[in-house]
Design brief:
With 107 residues, this protein is mainly α. Helices cover 52% and strands 4% of the residues. It has a two-stranded parallel sheet.
Length: 107
């Protein structure tokens, strides 16, 4: 009886851990921290940002089409669904600056 209790406890602990392992295996890998240009990105690229879903990403693109290019990254908070908390989570991955190649192609 004394040996059965630790064995039973170990079995129960292993079984309790199984759903967590299965849950971790189904999550997609974390994407590399790439910068997203709000003036060039597609809705799918914007949706790759943490906490931003496809619907909100589509609203960002619609806002850009309606209001013109973003002048600063903080303007993204004008989009419904992106508040200060969301912005603070993604601000390090946002840009509105033109790349060197884009500037040269406009000349």
């Amino acid at each position: 009886m004394n040996r059965a209790v630790p064995v039973l406890t170990a079995v129960l602990l292993c079984l309790a851990a199984l759903p967590l392992d299965a849950q971790r295996a189904t999550k997609p890998p974390v994407p590399l921290a790439t910068t997203v240009n709000l003036n060039r990105a597609t809705a799918i690229q914007i949706a790759d940002l943490p906490g931003i879903g496809i619907k909100t990403a589509e609203l960002v693109v619609q806002y850009r089409v309606k209001n013109g290019p973003f002048k600063k990254i903080e303007e993204v908070m004008n989009v419904r669904g992106i508040g200060e908390k969301s912005f603070l989570r993604i601000k390090d991955r946002l840009t509105v600056a033109e790349t060197k190649g884009e500037t040269e192609s406009k000349k």
